[in-house]
Each structure stands twice: as C-alpha cells, then as structure tokens.
Amino acid sequence: xxxxxxxxxxxxxxxxxxxxxxxxxxxxxxxxxxxxxxxxxxxxxxxxxxxxxxxxxxxxxxxxxxxxxxxxxxxxxxxxxxxxxxxxxxxxxxxxxxxxxxxxxxxxxxxxxxxxxxxxxxxxxxxxxxxxxxxxxxxxxxxxxxxxxxxxxxxxxxxxxxxxxxxxxxxxxxxxxxxxxxxxxxxxxxxxxxxxxxxxxxxxxxxxxxxxxxxxxxxxxxxxxxxxxxxxxxxxxxxxxxxxxxxxxxxxxxxxxxxxxxxxxxxxxxxxxxxxxxxxxxxxxxxxxxxxxxxxxxxxxxxxxxxxxxxxxxxxxxxxxxxxxxxxxxxxxxxxxxxxxxxxxxxxxxxxxxxxxxxxxxxxxxxxxxxxxxxxxxxxxxxxxxxxxxxxxxxxxxxxxxxxxxxxxxxxxxxxxxxxxxxxxxxxxxxxxxxxxxxxxxxxxxxxxxxxxxxxxxxxxxxxxxxxxxxxxxxxxxxxxxxxxxxxxxxxxxxxxxxxxxxxxxxxxxxxxxxxxxxxxxxxxxxxxxxxxxxxxxxxxxxxxxxxxxxxxxxxxxxxxxxxxxxxxxxxxxxxxxxxxxxxxxxxxxxxxxxxxxxxxxxxxxxxxxxxxxxxxxxxxxxxxxxxxxxxxxxxxxxxxxxxxxxxxxxxxxxxxxxxxxxxxxxxxxxxxxxxxxxxxxxxxxxxxxxxxxxxxxxxxxxxxxxxxxxxxxxxxxxxxxxxxxxxxxxxxxxxxxxxxxxxxxxxxxxxxxxxxxxxxxxxxxxxxxxxxxxxxxxxxxxxxxxxxxxxxxxxxxxxxxxxxxxxxxxxxxxxxxxxxxxxxxxxxxxxxxxxxxxxxxxxxxxxxxxxxxxxxxxxxxxxxxxxxxxxxxxxxxxxxxxxxxxxxxxxxxxxxxxxxxxxxxxxxxxxxxxxxxxxxxxxxxxxxxxxxxxxxxxxxxxxxxxxxxxxxxxxxxxxxxxxxxxxxxxxxxxxxxxxxxxxxxxxxxxxxxxxxxxxxxxxxxxxxxxxxxxxxxxxxxxxxxxxxxxxxxxxxxxxxxxxxxxxxxxxxxxxxxxxxxxxxxxxxxxxxxxxxxxxxxxxxxxxxxxxxxxxxxxxxxxxxxxxxxxxxxxxxxxxxxxxxxxxxxxxxxxxxxxxxxxxxxxxxxxxxxxxxxxxxxxxxxxxxxxxxxxxxxxxxxxxxxxxxxxxxxxxxxxxxxxxxxxxxxxxxxxxxxxxxxxxxxxxxxxxxxxxxxxxxxxxxxxxxxxxxxxxxxxxxxxxxxxxxxxxxxxxxxxxxxxxxxxxxxxxxxxxxxxxxxxxxxxxxxxxxxxxxxxxxxxxxxxxxxxxxxxxxxxxxxxxxxxxxxxxxxxxxxxxxxxxxxxxxxxxxxxxxxxxxxxxxxxxxxxxxxxxxxxxxxxxxxxxxxxxxxxxxxxxxxxxxxxxxxxxxxxxxxxxxxxxxxxxxxxxxxxxxxxxxxxxxxxxxxxxxxxxxxxxxxxxxxxxxxxxxxxxxxxxxxxxxxxxxxxxxxxxx
Length: 1517
Fold this sequence. Notes:
Helix 13 packs antiparallel against helix 14 (382-395), helix 20 packs antiparallel against helix 21 (502-515) and helix 21 (502-515) runs antiparallel to helix 22 (520-532). By secondary structure, this protein is α/β, with parallel strands linked by helices. The radius of gyration is 44 Å and the shape is elongated. The longest helix has 40 residues, at 1441-1480. The strands form seven sheets. An eight-stranded parallel β-sheet has the order 5-4-3-6-7-8-9-24, covered by helices on one side.
C-alpha cells in the first residue's frame, strides 16, 4: 500500500437532484397549464347550459398583421411531460354510458365510422334529419343526433380527429345553431392545427351567444397556439392530414361567417385596440384579452383563469400570474386566520380544520393552490410556497401529520395520481434543501401514491446518506420506469462507488454522459472518481467540461481547484484561491453549508480562521439535522421545567395538561438515550473505517491491545470490510470485542453501542473518507472523543462569535445556558417545601449540538487560546498577534477561535505511532559480520569482554573498554558499546541503500527529501527549497511521484526559479510500499516539511529511520500545519555530554588550544590561544574541501592518522605539507579565507588567521573595512544556536530538546536552517571497528602502518586512472593483501543510472569481495542529530506507544470521573424538577410564580455564555 495514499478523503459525489437546476424545471416543477390540447366536455341536453373545458396555449390571429413577440417558455424542457399529465386530469368523461351497445356502420359523406350507441329510431337518409334554419330540432331525431355527437366525442377522445371532424361537419349541416357541436368543432380543428377554422367556429358561437365564456376562452387558447407556432417555426405542430382542397372547401362555405360579430365588438370595444406602445395587438395580446373577457363573464371560470395565469407565467410576469390565482382562490369559500402558525406542523393542523369547510371543488382547489405555490417558489418566497404546498396536500386528502410522525400510509383513493405524487416530491425536496430529514418520509409517501422516476431518484439520494443498499434498490426501480434518466444513472453510480463497486460506478457515469454529453453532474462525479483512482489529469479534463457546460457550477470549480493543487499546477492558483474565498464567504453569509470540504481547508491558504472553523461547524450541523430528522431517533429530551413552561403557554385551562411522555424523558436530560450505569471499568469504543491496511492502522495497531484490561474493556466498530491484512488481524485479535458494521445502518450501529453500554466513544475518522459521524450525533455514549483521524476541529459544538456566524441577523448563534429563570423558581419552590435541590450542570445544556466532547491534542499542535469558550486573560489578548488570515483573539467572545471541543493535552505529542512494534527491521547477517569482524574477530559479542559490555552486566568491563577507545571528537565516545554497534550497522545500511536507490550519485551529496503527497507543496515553500539546493551545490531534492502528474509541473517551475542546472537536481522516484518506504527514509539527510499542511504519518516514518526533519508551523489555528512540530518536540533530548560540547563550541566555555612548534595546532602558525565560538558551519564556502593524497608519500604522520580517526577535515596552510595533505577546494572559497585572514580549526569553524607572532589581530596591511566585513562574516557563520518554536510553554524552555533543531518560525529561518544543515556535513573515511577491543589490542602490538585510503575525488575521477592502478591493503594484521581495482568503478556522477553494480558501493574499502574495514561517511552537527534520533528512538516519547496509551487512559479516566460526578448532580436536578412540575401542574399559585420568574429573567440581559468555568482544557501529566 502506498504511504498516505488513502489519507486524503474521497470527494463527496454530487447528487443529481434539482439543487443545481433552476426553479420550476425537471420533475419538481409546478404545473402551470401552459401547453394543453383543448377538450370539450360531455354533451348536455340543454344547449344553453354553460360548457366548461381545459384550454391550451394560444396563437396569432390570422386576420391581423402582427409583429412577432418573443415568448419566454417557463417550462420548455418539460411541456410534453406536463401535457400528458394534464390531458389525463382534464379529459372529459361522458355521463352517457349506453347499454346493449351494438356496432353499426354509418355512411356519412362517404366515410365509415365505428359507432357504439343504442339507436332509438332506425337510421334514415341524413337528408331526412335536416332541420330548417332557425328551427329547433324535432323530438323524433334528437336521440339519433345525440348519438352521433357522442360518437364524435369518442373519436375526439381517442385522438381520431379526422373522423371526428367528418361526423361534426355532418352534424353541423343538420343543425348550424347547435352550440355543443360548434364548440367541439372548434376544439377538433384546433387539434388538427386548423387554427383558422377553430377561430371561425368559435366566432359562430359568439354570433349566437355573445356571452358564451367558453368560446372566448377557446379563442384565447387558439390565438396563443397560433403565436407560438409563428414565433417557433421549428416547434410548430405538424399540419393536419385534411387535404388543402377540403380545407378550402370548408373555408369557402363558412367564409361569410368568419368575422367576429358586431355585438361582440360593441360589448368589448378595446379588443383590437393598440397596445400601450401604439402597436397593433399581437396574437399573445389577443389571447390575454380573450381570457380576461371569459373571466369577466364568469369570475369562477377555472379554465380561463388557469390558462391566463399560464400565459402570464410564460412571459415571466410572475406577480401578475400570482394575482390571478389569488383572485380565483378568494372566490372559494375558504379563509385562513392571521397570523399563521409558526411551525409547519401547526400550520398543517390549521389547514386540516379550514379545508373541511369546502370539499365541493377539491381537485380544482388542489391544482390552484399547487400552481400558486409554484409561482411563490419561483419568486423566491420559499417559506410561503412551502405552506401552499402543504395546503395542497391537505386538500388532496394526504394525511400530512402521519407523514411528519414517520407513519407509513397507503392512499388507495389516489393511487397512481401523478399530480399528488409530484406535490409530495416538491415538499420533500424543499425539506431536503433545508437539511431536514423529514424529507425522507415525504419521498416515501410520494412513491406510495405513484412511483415516478424522479421520486425514486430523490428518495435514493436521501437513503444514500444512511443506507446505500436501499438507495441502490430505489435507483434501479426508477431506471426500470425510465431507462434514459440521466439523474438516476448518475446517482446509481455514486451509490455503487460507496459500495466499493468502482467499475459499476464508472459504467453508470459514462451511460449518463452518453445520454447527455454535457450533463455537468455526471461529468463532475466521474471526475471525482478518476481523481480517487489517481487519474488526476483525466479528472481535470472532466471538471473543465462540466464547467464549460455550466460555468456557475461551484462544486466543479472547487474540485477543479483542488485537483490543480494536487498536481502542483499553480498557473492560476492565487486567482482561484481568491475566488474560493469569495464563494465560502458568500455561502456562510447565506447560512449555507460551504462547498469546500473540511479536509480541503488544509491547503487553501486564502481561508481565514473563522472560515475554517465555520466550514467544519456547518458540516457538523448538517449531521445533527440528519439524525434529528430520522424517524428512529427519539430526539433530545427537554428539561422538566421547559416542558412545564411550554404546557403553560399552550393551554388556558385551570389544570395544565402536561405531556407525560416528555416529562418522563426529562429524567434522562440531556441524553436521548439513558446513559450506561457508572461502573468500575470504563467501556471504551473505537469507531473507524480504517481498521485495514491504512496509515491510521499502521500508527495505532498496538494501541488497542496496550489498554489496561483491569480498567478498560475495548470495543472496536469497523466501518469497512476486512482486507485480511496483518494490521486488521492484529487489531481484531487484541480488541476485547471487534464488530464489523460496514453494512449496518446508523440506527443499527447506535443501538449496538447502546447494548454494549459504552462510556467513552472515540471517533477515529473525523471528516475523512468512510466517516459516519451520524453515529456520534445520535449521542449513544455520554463521553465522545476524537483524535488521530482528522487534524482539525470537528466543529460539533457551540460558539459565541457575534457578526461572523452567518450574518448580522444571526449574531448570536446559540446560548451557552438554558437558564430562563427556571433555576431560581425551582430553588424557591423546593426550598419552601423543605426539600433540597442541587445545582444544574450548565455544560449539559449544549449537548444537543456538541457531539464531540474532547479532542486529544497537545499544546504545540493546538494552542489553548484558540479554544472556544476558554477563559483567557487580558494579557493573552494583548500578546496575541493578528495575522493576514486570523484576527486577534478576544477574551469576551470566540472571534478568531477554532476549537469547539474541550482539549485534552497530552504531555508530549497527541500523535501516536506503532513503528517500534510494527516496523522493526530484520538484522542483516552480512552487515553484522562486517561490523563484528572489521578487526579480524569472528564475533565480538562472544568475546569475554565483548559479552560483558553488550549485556551491560559488568560495569568494570565497560569502564575498562571505554578507556581503550580512541578519542572521538564527533561524539561517538558518548555512546555505549551496544549503541556504537547499532550505529555503525545503521551507517552501513544507509550507505548500501543509498547506492541502490541512487547509484549515479556522488558520495558527498546532501540529500534533501520530502515524501508528502504533492498537493501539500505550495509555491512559497517550493521556492524556498530551490533556494536551498542552489546555496548547497552538492545537494539534490528528492520528491515522490505522488501523483506522477505533478512531476512535470514542478520541474517546469524549478527551471523558472533557478534555471536548468539547479533544477536538474530535482529528483523524483516512485512511491514505495509502506515497509520499504519507512526504511529507505534513512537515505535522506534532511526531510524538508511542507508548512501549509505538514507531514503527519510521514513525519513519524522519517524520524523512525533516524532522518531529522525541518518543519515550520505556519498557522497557529491550523492543526494540520503544526503536527510535524508536535512530533519533532517528542523526540527527546541531547545528552549532557553533548550539551556541554555545544556550550563549548558556542563560546560559553573557553579553552586554550596550544599549538606545537611544528605548526600542527588548530590555529596554525607558531602557536597561540584560540577561542572557539561556533558550531561547525561552512556558510562562507559553497563546497566542502576534499583531501588529496600525495602519491609520493607512503607514510602519514601520527598526527594526521589521529585526525583521520577523529573524522576531522583539516585545512593546512600552503607551506605546511609535512603530513602529506594539500587543499583541494574551490578557488573562491580559498581566496576569501586568504582575503579575510580566516583559517579553519580542527573543529571545523573559521577563525581569524594568527600572525607570525601568535596574536589574533589582523595584519597591519589590511584596512579597517576589510576587517569589519570579515568580522560580520565570522559572526554569521559561527553563531548558530537554534531558537526553536516561538511559543511560550514551560517545556520548550529546555534547551536540550532535539526539536529546537527541527522547528523554525519563518520561511527565512527555514532556509537558513536547511542550508546550515547541509553545509555542516563533511565526509571522511571512518574505520568500522575503531572501538573494537580486538582491533585496539592488535593496533598496539602491530608496527605495520595503517593503509593509505582513497579519497572521494580519487574515487570519482576514474577517467584519469589507468587499468593497472591499484592500492595495496596491508595495514591490518590477519588479512591478506588485496588489490582495489579502480577501473571497475561505475561513473558515479552522471544522471544515467548504471546497470551493473559492484559487490560493495565505492564508499566501502576494500570492495573486491573482502569484508570492508573502512566506510566513507559524513560527520557534523546533522549527523550528530541523526545519530541521537536513531540511537534513542526506542526510548523517546513519539515511539513509546505503551506510555502514550497510559497517558491517554489517564485522560479518559479523568474525563469519566468528572462526567460521573456531574451526571449524578444532573440526575438529582432532573428528579427535583420532575417532582416540582408534578406538584405545580395542579397548583395555581405555583404556576403564576413560575411565569413571573421566567418573565423577570427574560427581561434581563441575555445569557451569553457560562463564565463560571476555570478552563475547558485538561492537562495530562
């Protein structure tokens, strides 16, 4: 598994619902009756009886020349869907149902018809049925005429319009004044797109009856359709199948009667009047006027009113349309009192009462209210729109109260009614947008009435939050109803992704995109999935496609920004981050949940402290709302006195009726479930999805088994399936109870935790992939903690932050106290009866919103001053510094504070890891043999003195052995024999592994490294890194292809910053498996951390390998940027000997270093006194000097051999060549030292060159400015005492902490620290067995000289050596002479890796199969730090898992004891309130005193917070 690969959470997929679509579109859009086919209703016996009918859109008048007017189609995408539904609703049903029907074939005008009716008279020649003009039809042929008209209706209703028209023409020829026939003729012609004929027939009606409202309404509809066809030619209806010849014949026959009757024009003189702009009226204008005439004739004319409102809506004249609906509604015998109830449930109760008054027009009223609600919603009046929707459901006989109660109801009377189902979906969607889980019950009701694809889609979206398996089933039901539904395919893909079916998810997303290539939600979700799979570049392309399709798609933009950061594409980084900040600010001000995920705030530098906190807090609020709206959740109980108060407000009876169920539940206030009994053992539960091969399991695998079983019982609840990894198996075996709950619902998990009686429940996920925070929001345990999973606040708690929590209207988000005068009254009433009442625990009042009580941290990772509600002193406020992204903290409120939880401070670091137990490296027998036999011994441990030293049992032996060791100025003499043995093995392992990974690299190269995911790198730190490797020429920067797509961008950026030569030293390798990654960390010399978001697990990995880190905790309010500092300061201390050495080098201790007459002293010349005042550093020269061996010298002096063994690089004067060494260093460095009179001592620092007389003064030939410049350079080089973290903590005052060398306070300090680390490294040959007792003894007895060893330049410059060049190795007794062949060395300094590698790297001597005796290894301050980290890693706090668990247990025990005492007090308070309410419910005087006390309390100042708290933090010693 790749390191840290799953620590970054998956993007949350976007639900394909209406959230990203405009109002009144898709399935939830309101029906505005904007595109209907006209229908006539059933035949009535009396032609003068008014006829009603639904009528369609309108069109232009063919008699007038009109300018085209643009029509804004309000529901253009769904007109066909609306048309089908409304046809079903409005289709007329004839009351005539003939019995004994027979099939009879009639021949009328040569056309055949199938007629079903019961004839009363034998059919005669149609001519016999002719009626003279102006003569009422005779009785004998009425039934036959009616039968033909019924047949025409049947043909019309079956869409056989041609046949219906033929029948109606014959009937018209029989009776030209029969209004029902003329009305149906007009509708039939309309359906055949014969708009001119439709207008003619309606005009004929008006010539017979100028007040015939239906004719006016149908004229309006026809003119509207005419206009629509002319303004949208491509969408015009298909022409009629009636031939043009037939049309012309009909028109000629009726031409004389086509004009509008004069009587109509006299009644409505403004019908053809010009518009307000002076233009002739268009068809749309005429349609509107005809509708209004129809309504003026009959104010309750439903069809005309609905169609007029639809016309106005199509022109976006929403307010006018709403007035039309309101005017019609006022004509119904229904009225609502004002003001309306505040809660939706109370409003529904009122609606049920009011709507019972008039049930005569229930269907029409339902549609009217529904249409009115849709217009309100389109106008943005969401709250009133919701009320109208609820009203429409009440009218439709939906038991809304049972829906609120979570009780399923069947509705057989409206089964299959798609309109009602759509109403329920609309209300459900509104609740869903509010985050109210009651939406789920409305969706269930919708699919109960009629399962539509859209209802199934949104129901699946709701279920996916808690039960993804059920969501998948409903998505599939929806696809069975509509196999081309892109939303269902998209959401099914997201659900399959959550189930782990990645291939199925990709297939669904691709099907959705195939159906609709620009469907932005499917594009964004597929991009999210590709990013999780590491296909980041493909994801970026999909995000761009989604944004091209929908530029305002905020979710896609934010994810695109994050993906670009993931691959270090910084081209528009600053611009994008500014826009992200603006998006977050706007969403917070509107009370919305920000699009930016809490995890992504880690790397968004533009977000302020308040934004970071509020993003987490809004997500926590959403989790709480989901749980509280779930039907299975019992809810949080209220205090008994609050129940009593609400009962008093709701009733005026003499005896108060109190809800006994609520009163009984008040005994467990504030917990929704009865807390487990207090016992001697704490039942501890861990909840996580990462009990698999995951970084968290790597870090914590032994924690669960280390718990003290006499005090704790450990339960683990796994939210993921088993991967059968060793980590999973270890956790399963060491937990007392391990339960796999990955496929359980939240309800089932909560109920299991309740059964297990958990006291302390730990959240190990936070806001990362796989989290199910709803478990914690349900409060199944009295104490709930979070740590390790998410490096930031969960936001699940209260804040008091005026003006920054959602706008001015919500300046005070919540109170910190429930005290409304209840407590004073309770004390008075109980005291008067002689009882005793305890004090209320104010901390419990905020429990409803606080589902994380404690977060385990340390004071470096999370400063105390940033805890919300923490009492602070004015001094802290005064000392706090305001930054660009965080204002000053305030002692009065929570502005600029972050943590809503109580903080539990661990003594060293909150970060735990199990590397000591889980990632020990196996011993290498070859290396063991090299180390133990370097001086010719087979096994050192088996020697008499060696076994005593290694075992530590014989202090005399160790003392004797220490006296025999060579003097070692690099600090190895501070080590025990066992530690020296381990360290030399580590050095050899490091050199071998380094050669394996970088076979082309020079031995004296400084390797800076960073193994974080690339998204943590920001331009500022990358620029700093480039400056570092530029200043340290013999250095490289080693990064990982994490992901590979980032390599190109970083290399390009490096060239821009420092040019190609330096940029070529930026090296990338692939990510290694975990066990290899941890151990190959030893190759790096320094790990350069990322300040924006630190290395977390990776920092522990690196320190375990012994490599020092360098980190900068950039933000005090971002825990993610301080984790590495926390880890670094848990690495222990320098030894006392090493601290004395540092004091000496800093000049705190002085000594006289006498120089012998031969000039071999540190100061050179003829002697003198030298004051050493600096740590080893080479800031004045870019490259460390190398030693060259003079070929003419076969023997080194004793002093030179001693210096080699001490690993000291000695710089000699040009005239000092006695010991056979000469300086080979860059010219500029050498000239600088000659110019400023600097000379390097044996300790590596540069000092003023002494004069011939032995004084340290600059020669008289040098000018004063030169001397001053030299002094400044000396000061800059020598005085380097690390400051450490700038944080006022007592434990940081200890100057021996290793962390001081690894933590800095600025980018500049970061750069200087890294450069000095690199330049402090010096490479020398080192004898592997220099401390070995056998080697020491033989060295004393041998008179043979030590071998002359090759230097690094000799090893490097192989091209200058001949094939016969060899070095004799005769220096060690007991070994045969060997030849070292230089022509076998690879070219070590090219960038092309070699294929063939030697048996030993060139850093070992000899290399031809014999066990080496020397290694070419670095020394200096950085190596001292590395050695200290490696040698002490088994003892330092960061790797001592058992002690960490013991500290954690202390904190948990303290929290449990504190809670136990508080809960006992609260229980007493609950019982006292319960008894007081029972008495006061029947005593008038007590009720009155209660109300007075509450009124008095509310008139005072508002309670802001509980200030009677010493601290909200807990320190673990």
